[in-house]
Design brief:
This protein is mainly α. 65% of the residues lie in helices and 10% in strands. Among the domains are: 89 residues; 175 residues, no CATH class. It is elongated, with a radius of gyration of 36 Å.
Length: 428
């Protein structure tokens, strides 16, 4: 009789644990990183359905997708700064030469002289606007990189805490399964920022290394840290301090940090090109002025100035219409005609078109990479979720089965109690 009662109690406890596990599955069906579980009825052990190979492939694919989307996002930001519309550098520089041609047809027209000076001011404004937009993109990347590095360091600390807690938690329990979920979520977050190689011991404790670098970011006893610095031109330099205190510069081979680094380098190149173009434009206008004569017969003074910060500081000087050097000393419009000839030789407008075209090609290429990497990531997640994901229909069937089993076990206990009571009544 006692054996029957013990069997019933053991079964009720096991089915109760099973029902609780299904409840966890249903409640966390949409929780990122949650792995489906079941309960082994024989001993009440919680079984977590996860495959490290599938998890690793998902992490790799997620990192590549994040790298591509991050790079694309910042390249598109720079593309918006490289405005090629009516208020962009190309149109405004072209307008300067067009106003010069118009003035050459009537060099003594005050209205046309004013229009020419205004076009130079407009071009300078376009240079400053473009340079400012590119600088803002660089600063945005630097800020995001710092935030991401901070998140990486936080995730490494979280993983260290999980490692240490796993050692004190019995395997096969719901708490142990929850810790493994937390570990995998942190590893996924980490791999989106920087690709990692993960080693797990028999307890599930993780050792993490940055892929392809030999740099250890986490061991069972300590966590490393990462850092980032931004140069004046916006390029990024990353560093890593390993758990043993060894520090070195590193180049993230993937993840969002690599995407930021690549985009920052591209934008730094565009900033340098715009600065060089602004300097060339200012030199062309000022050289033309210096080669000509004003109405009073004096050499022309500069019309533009530019400081050490390049295109960010180019500005039109406050010059009167009479200070324009349109003449060469013999013909009133000869110096303006010389400027028109210099337009062709300078290649300023062609250089601007090349800057815009080159960047547009980079953006288009980045879009293709982003689309393909996103598809790979989705496929990897689907493969992982085939094992680890929660299917509510399956859980509903299992819930009904366990409820019926629970009721049957409870009925065994009830029958045993009734039989025991009957025996006691006979004995009495």
């Amino acid at each position: 009789m006692t054996d029957i009662m013990a069997l019933g109690l053991t079964s009720v406890k096991a089915f109760t644990q099973g029902l609780a596990t299904i409840s966890d599955n249903v409640a966390n069906a949409q929780t990122p990183g949650y792995a489906r579980r079941s309960t082994r009825i024989e001993d009440g052990t919680v079984i977590r359905y996860a495959d490290e190979w599938r998890n690793n492939e998902s992490r790799i694919a997620s990192g590549l997708a994040t790298q591509a989307s991050t790079r694309l996002n910042w390249l598109e930001s720079a593309e918006r700064a490289l405005d090629d519309g009516e208020t962009g550098i190309g149109q405004r520089v072209g307008a300067v030469f067009n106003r010069a041609e118009e003035l050459a047809a009537d060099p003594n027209s005050v209205a046309r002289r004013s229009a020419y000076l205004q076009s130079i001011d407009d071009a300078a404004i376009s240079f400053r606007t473009t340079a400012s937009g590119l600088k803002s993109s660089s600063e945005g990347i630097a800020s995001q990189a710092q935030q991401t590095v901070t998140s990486v360091n936080s995730d490494l600390k979280g993983l260290l805490n999980v490692n240490q807690t796993l050692l004190a938690t019995p395997q096969g329990t719901s708490g142990y399964a929850s810790l493994l979920d937390q570990r995998d979520r942190l590893l996924t977050n980490l791999s989106r920022a920087v690709p990692v190689d993960v080693s797990l011991d028999f307890r599930g404790v993780a050792t993490v290394r940055m892929s392809g670098t030999g740099v250890t970011l986490l061991n069972p006893d300590a966590a490393g840290t990462m850092g980032v610095t931004a140069a004046a031109n916006g390029t990024l330099t990353f560093s890593a301090t390993q758990p043993d205190g060894t520090a070195s510069d590193v180049i993230p081979p993937g993840g969002s940090l690599a995407g930021m680094s690549s985009a920052a380098a591209d934008i730094a190149e565009q900033r340098a090109s715009v600065d060089a173009l602004a300097a060339k434009f200012a030199d062309l206008i000022n050289s033309n002025q210096a080669a000509g004569r004003t109405k009073s017969g004096n050499p022309g003074g500069p019309l533009l100035e530019m400081g050490a910060d390049g295109a960010l500081t180019i500005a039109a000087l406050d010059v009167s219409v009479d200070a324009l050097a349109t003449s060469n000393g013999t013909a009133d419009n000869a110096n303006l005609l010389a400027l028109n000839a210099a337009r062709r030789d300078s290649g300023i407008e062609t250089a601007w078109t090349a800057i815009v075209s080159s960047h547009a090609q980079k953006v288009q290429s980045a879009k293709l990479v982003q689309e393909s990497s996103q598809s790979r990531s989705e496929a990897a997640d689907e493969a992982r979720d085939q094992l680890s994901g929660v299917d509510l229909d399956r859980e509903a069937v299992e819930l009904m089965r366990l409820q019926q089993s629970y009721e049957a076990a409870a009925r065994v206990i009830q029958v045993a109690r009734e039989m025991l009571q009957s025996i006691n009544d006979i004995g009495g």
